[in-house]
Amino acid sequence: MSANSHSRRDFLRQAVATGAGLGALSTGLTPFMAMPVWAKDEPPIGTWPGGSQGNSVGIGAAVPRTGTYAVQGEDELKGWQLAVEHINSGNDLLKKFSPKTSKGVLGKEVKLYVADSAAKPNQAVQAEQGFITQNKIVLMTGSTSSAVAVALNKLAQREKVLYVTGISGSNDTTGKDCVRYGFRQNFFGQTAAAAIAPVLVKQFGKNKKVAYMTPDYTYGHTVTKAVQDATKADGWTTVTNQVSPLGAPDFSSYLLNIANSGADLLINVNWGHDAVLSIQQAKQFGVLDKMKLVVPYQVPFLARETGGLMQGVYAATDYWWTIEDKYPLAKAFNAEFEKKYGYKPEWGAANAYVSFAHWARMVEAAGTFYPPAVIKEYEKGETIPSLVGDVNYRPEDHQCIRPVIIVKGKMQKDMKNKEDFYDIVEIIPGKGLMQKPDEFGCKLGEYT
Amino acid sequence: MFTWANFFSQVFNGLALGALLALISSGLTIIYGTLGVLNLAHGAMFMMGGYAGYVAYDATGSFIVAVAAGALFLLVVGVALERGVIRHFYHRPHEDQLLVTFGLSIVMVEVVRLIFSSLSKTVPAPAMLSGITSLGITFYPTYRIAVVGIVAVALLVLYFVLYRTRLGMIVRAGIEDSEMVDSLGINVDRIFMVVFGIGAMAAGFAGIVNAPIVSLTPDVGEAILVQTFVVVVIGGVGSFPGAVLGGLIAGEIISITSMIDPAYAYIMLFAAMTLVLVLRPYGLLGVRGRE
């Protein structure tokens, strides 16, 4: 049976290619604009076509609203909600990303279904599975933990439903655990490390002894390794690596090991509330008086929550609102976001908004919700707008090539307003930071 | 790299960590031992104590007032919950008790989240206890050293109440045989209310004493609850001295393992619990057959 369907599909594909080619010759249309014809004749896949036959289409978001990453999850959720609102109203800002969007995606209203993942992979998968079965969602999102991102990647590939990551910093998400159905907009361990390492070496010098704090899962291990690798050539050595579980209630024993390690720097890879708590307790234990703190993968709200402890601290981030001086889209986004929510967006919200806007663009360009057609739209790797200038998705691993922003915590006296926590040190283009597409073992898998 | 300085600092840290765990666990074990109710809302009560203290601190700027507020607020909450909900579950299956206390904990956590959001809140240590103290071998946060003293006093008070007063005698008799106590003409019902109140107060007190160490979030009780159960299982369910011993053992396991390989600190804690369950299912200081 499968042989039959394949041969039928191959036949159709050839027919469409020929037809589209002829059409392009005669009308000047590109072959890709003929995609709807091609998609319509395909056998059902995932939630297609059932999920997009009504007046609306659903997106399922599994986002942490409780637990260690709850604060960051809420920020992300606001970014998605704003994007959905903009997609449905045909907002001007969204049209900058997706010019064909008028009201909804392909004229269909977008509905966002939300579930709490508590940053736990099983809970996230269960929630999305429910949305797939009950609501026939056409897109999944979520993750503020790479463990969740990797799990949802696998679900996406199995269920043939597209997935755009929320926050996910692990190299594995578009590395060894990459999938055809998954796409990541935001920066990750490798790019963060490659971007921040030269800045750190310039600032602190060569041959430094470093203590690491690493959360015990894919994000933590890959980010720590990436920073270790990126600083090795300059003689930076690891004197201790304190691995702790996600949501550790106390960091005292780890911090004592660090205090007694003789390190010059503390590179803290912990994230969410773990970062807040470990930094506050590092202060209590006098560790921050002995060594310089570095946060290689910046945490939304960290400066706010640690009350001054990020002053003078270097961090790599995806987005910081003051880049608006340089990027008009960032300025427009900040204004829209602040108008609705009353604060400046953090990078989780920015990433959430952009990843939806990009998805809307790809679907509009494909002219169909048929997943393989949308995937191929991403895989064209065209240069498209984002909040941090033009970017593109790499066809080989579905990672967005985008800049990494190095920030440094501002001193209290230099803050121009209560949310002016960081100076922009440098905005480093993404291309030179990224590993070769196959370096982390990415094999995307099948379209169908 | 092993150093004696680090070893001794970790041993001391284990003591400080253990003291706090002992305090939190004592409330849980008293309630379970007397009422037979495994209170899954204990972590949420611990969290609420912290927030009640935070509100009081915010209003008055006094840490002492904050501690009093954290403890008393939870005493009131405890008594109200016992009268309104828990007492209807004494004679129902354990599963029902677990479900109702688990449900209560979700309600408490989400109400706090609704009011205060998930952003963390800090209660600073009192000025005279802030900063760092040299212990010769290592430097240690002054407040954490003070906490060892605070907890020791609190545990002594609890000990005195449980072992040196008429109330305590009745409570302990209630742990052994509540029907007999009832038939002696003592109003067990009221005693149970008081016990649940004291247990909740111990959780609230621990919550606010812990607040300057951890920065509060609505989820602060969740992680600690798991450790508290481990402590109670190691020490012996329903045993007050067991909670103290279990707390200290847990603190030392976390601290000392972290020195050898930090990734195993919490794993070893569960390994120790498993070992105790295999060798002495009723816990180190628990009594066989008591439930």
Oligomer: heterodimer
The low-confidence runs of chain B, each spanning 5 or more residues with pLDDT under 50, are none
Strand order of the largest sheet of chain A: 7-6-8-9-10-13-14
* Biggest sheet layout of chain B: 2 strands, antiparallel
Largest interface in this structure: A-B, 39 and 43 residues
If you had to describe this structure to a student in words, what would you say it looks like?
The complex is a heterodimer of chains A (448) and B (291). By secondary structure, chain A is of the alpha/beta class. Chain A folds into two domains: 216 residues, Rossmann fold (3-Layer(aba) Sandwich), CATH 3.40.50.2300; 132 residues, Rossmann fold. Helix content of chain A is 42%, strand content 16%. Chain A has a seven-stranded mixed β-sheet, sandwiched between helices. A five-stranded parallel β-sheet of chain A has the order 2-1-3-4-5, sandwiched between helices. In chain A, strands 11-12 form a two-stranded antiparallel sheet. Chain B has a two-stranded antiparallel ribbon with strand order 1-2. Chain B is an all-alpha fold. Chain B contains eleven helices and two strands, in the order ααααββααααααα. Chain B has a single domain, classed as ABC transporter involved in vitamin B12 uptake, BtuC (Orthogonal Bundle). In chain B, strand 1 and strand 2 form a beta hairpin. Chains A and B meet through helix 3, strand 7, helix 9 and helix 10 of A and helix 1, strand 2, helix 9 and helix 10 of B.
Short structural summary:
The complex is a heterodimer of chains A (448) and B (291). By secondary structure, chain A is of the alpha/beta class.
Relevant terms:
heterodimer, A: 448 residues, alpha/beta, Rossmann fold, 2 domains, seven-stranded mixed beta sheet, 14 strands, 42% helix, 16% strand, B: 291 residues, mainly alpha, ABC transporter involved in vitamin B12 uptake, BtuC, two-stranded antiparallel ribbon, 11 helices, 2% strand, globular
